[in-house]
Each structure stands twice: as structure tokens, then as C-alpha cells.
Design a protein that fits this description.
This protein has 267 residues and is an alpha+beta fold. It contains 10 helices and 4 strands, in the order E-H-E-H-E-E-H-H-H-H-H-H-H-H. Helix 1 runs parallel beside helix 3, helix 4 packs antiparallel against helix 8 and helix 4 packs parallel to helix 9. The two termini are 15 Å apart.
Length: 267
């Protein structure tokens, strides 16, 4: 079975999960927890970022590389159009979404992480309590200092918000003109990318993610609750209802859900 090394609330992991579900491919999720999980991931893939897909002896990092690999290796229900113009539009939209919705979304999220309850809620399942308590105890002022150190100044966050508003407005215009999907009559990598990368803006309410119930339907103020984007989130939620599979716990060899985090096996 395909194995996806991931973080449940990673936008880029969700992008890959949408691709896998759309293509009706069975896969097992392996949550990468802080500490040794990151180290093992680096040993396996040569880098420390999720998502990483393992298919037999093949290990593929980066959400775009994974999506292209899956479409080439498992060609049923293709996500890259054949028509040259539609293909070019699809790939350009996917690249744009990675940079805009993906990267800018993480910048905007920093402001929301001043809430200690949110910080601990978004940690991977299986994160040791001692680490959760440490993360939850970080004062708001320290988050500000950390953000400044990473380049997330107030001006950078303000600029990211302005860009995100422009991005969502543009997507809504595309949906108004094109109807069901961004580039044609069927979903493509562009649709699945845009939908998946909006994860942090507003977490889907359905049974799709292994997250605390109080996080479902919640999102970043000014975006998740903005009526100007009702069209976008309605479109996204329909895409989920049509193609995203409900979350099920990974099953161990005894037929029961595991009670401890899944560890990474390095071949």
C-alpha cells in the first residue's frame, strides 16, 4: 500500500490526500511527530518536510512531485489535462496556488497561533504531552519575537493578508466564469491544489481530518467568516463531498486502530 508521511493539518499534505482520494488510491497515513519522527523522515527522504510518499522502494518528496508521480504511475482518473492550453493553465494555477495560498496562508496563520489552545490543537496526534505543554506555555510575546526572527513582521503579515484577499477574489471570478471547475469540466490538479491549500483558511466541517471537533469549520477571521468568499468555500466543500474520503484510523495487524503513534520504518 502507498504510505503518506504527513502532518494532518499540513496544507501540502492535504493537497496530496485530495489527489490520492480523487484517484481512488488506497494509502496509509503516517503522522510525522516532532523529534525523532523528523529525523527518521530526513534519513528516508533526504529532507525534513512533509509530505513524503513511499511507493514500494520509491520515495518522493514535495507535493507537486508526488502529484505528478501519481498521475504518471496511476493514470486512471487523470488530473493533468491532455489539451495543451488546459494543461498549461492547470500547471500555472497549481504553481501559483503553492506560492500564494500555501506560503501566504502559513504567514497569516502565525497571528492566530498566539492562542495557546490553537497551538496545541494543531500539533500532530501522538505528540508527547510534555512537548504539547511546552508549546502551549509559550507566551504571546515570544510568538511575536519568533515571527520577527522568521521574517513575519507586522508588515509582512499585512501584505500576506492583502495578497490572500486578492487570490480568493480571483478564484471566485474564475469559478463564476468557468462553472464547476477551474480549467474545464472535470477536476484537475489545479482544483485539488487550491482546495487542499485552503485548509488553514477554514477547516472543512466533514469527517475528513483527524483533528479536534472544535476546530472543524473554524478558520482565520476575515477569511473563513467573510461572505465575499461563500462561493469559494461552497465550491471547495462540494469538491470534498464528491471526492474526499472520510477519515478512518489506520488499522494494525490485529485489525484494531493503533493506540500509539505509528513509527517510521526505514528500509
Amino acid at each position: 500500500m502507498l504510505e503518506l508521511y504527513q502532518f494532518e493539518l499540513s496544507q501540502f499534505s492535504e493537497k496530496v490526500r485530495l489527489v490520492l482520494d480523487y484517484k481512488r488510491l488506497a494509502y496509509r497515513k503516517i503522522e510525522v511527530v516532532p523529534g525523532m519522527g523528523k529525523l527518521d523522515l530526513f534519513r528516508m527522504s533526504g529532507q525534513g518536510q512533509v509530505p513524503v510518499l513511499k511507493d514500494g522502494n520509491k520515495v518522493i518528496a514535495d507535493s507537486t512531485a508526488i502529484a505528478l508521480y501519481l498521475d504518471k504511475t496511476y493514470p486512471d482518473r487523470p488530473i493533468i489535462p491532455i489539451d495543451p492550453q488546459q494543461k498549461a493553465t492547470c500547471l500555472l494555477l497549481e504553481q501559483w496556488a503553492d506560492n500564494s495560498l500555501g506560503n501566504q496562508g502559513r504567514t497569516i496563520l502565525l497571528e492566530s497561533l498566539k492562542s495557546s489552545s490553537l497551538r496545541t490543537s494543531i500539533l500532530p496526534s501522538g505528540t508527547p504531552d510534555i512537548f504539547k505543554n511546552l508549546v502551549g506555555s509559550i507566551p504571546r510575546e515570544a510568538i511575536d519575537i519568533l515571527g520577527l526572527g522568521l521574517g513575519f513582521t507586522p508588515d509582512a503579515i499585512k501584505a500576506a493578508k492583502a495578497e490572500m484577499h486578492r487570490s480568493l477574489e480571483s478564484i471566485c471570478m474564475l469559478l463564476t466564469q468557468n462553472g464547476g471547475y477551474l480549467t474545464g469540466d472535470t477536476p484537475t490538479l489545479a482544483d485539488l491544489t487550491v482546495a487542499g491549500l485552503s485548509l488553514l483558511l477554514k477547516i472543512p466541517e466533514g469527517p475528513y481530518l483527524d483533528v479536534p471537533f472544535n476546530l472543524k469549520g473554524k478558520g482565520i477571521p476575515g477569511f473563513a467568516d467573510n461572505p465575499d468568499y461563500d462561493l469559494f468555500f461552497t465550491w471547495r466543500d462540494k469538491l470534498y463531498a464528491d471526492f474526499r474520503k472520510p477519515h478512518l484510523p489506520n488499522i494494525n495487524n490485529s485489525g484494531a486502530a493503533p493506540t500509539t503513534p505509528t513509527t517510521i520504518a526505514i528500509d
